[in-house]
Write a structure and sequence with these properties.
167 residues, single chain, 29% helix, binds zinc ion, three-stranded antiparallel sheet, 14% strand, elongated, 8 strands, alpha+beta
Amino acid sequence: MKLIDFSNDLVWQQLRQSMGATDDGAFDLYDPLRHLSHQELRQLASSGIALAASQLLVLKDRTLALKNRRIWLLREDGNGAGQWHVAACDQVNQWRHSNQLVRVSTVTAMPPLKDGEAPKICMACLAEVGYQGIDSRRIRRVDFAEQVSREFRLEAFFREFPQQWGE
Ligand SMILES: [Zn+2]
């Protein structure tokens, strides 16, 4: 039996282009357990998604992901707020194991001020991933930690640890 070769078919080519596939078979089938839906992606990029911390993945580099996106998170109830997290530090691990409700987001603008106080990046998270040579010994130096916290930008962090990978 001779199989029909569709690869030069115009309709097929247009379909492939509209799916963003450059080659035959270059696209993944959508799997709702592993891939975020368009709605979830929109939520992550706007108000964020509230979920149990146990649903988060810890990637090999110790950053955090929701399905196929790296995210940052805040504790949902505001307790332990004042800080947002980008990795599996001790605090985040504790939340993961006790199923705390957290809010995750991919927004790279800094999180909004709360009660007039700007929440800060968690230093333990930065030490966890070794961001810009930061380690658990150096973050104990108050002047160093304050400088890192002042200069930290989520945008720069996610350039080093892309929100979207391997697709
Ligand atoms: Zn942390």
